[in-house]
Design a protein that fits this description.
By secondary structure, the chain is an alpha+beta fold. 49% of the residues lie in helices and 12% in strands. β2 and β3 form a beta hairpin.
Length: 144
Amino acid sequence: MSTSLSKKVSQHDVVEVPNKDVVSCEDGKLSSHFTTEEIKILKHIASNPIFNVKNVFEVKVKKVDHSLNGILESVASYYKVTVDKIKGSQRSEILINARRDFCHLAFIKTKKSFTTIGDIINRSYPTVSYHIKQKSVNSESILK
């Protein structure tokens, strides 16, 4: 059995109803013949959060500073340590990994010399060279 579904529309609204040949607009009301079951299915589909336009187009953009200081701050934030600790003399595993990742990222993203990179973290040319020859720990995920 068929029931009539009416929706108030303005004169400028364009409404498409696929696979239905009986659609009319009289006195600002749109009429279409849907079954009660079809109406329930359409309401269920429309209530799905995937059809919420805000969720579909919401994109988080993270600005990344590719300067030496910006990379150093990103590495410090990733490892949850301070910039001063990375520049310091402690040799804990976390700080060594942070320095290694900084050296990798600084060399790849800025193409600066080993001496310039070393000056930022108070390390020498051979130390930076050694870090870059070693495999990076987390450099792929730090600037994402």
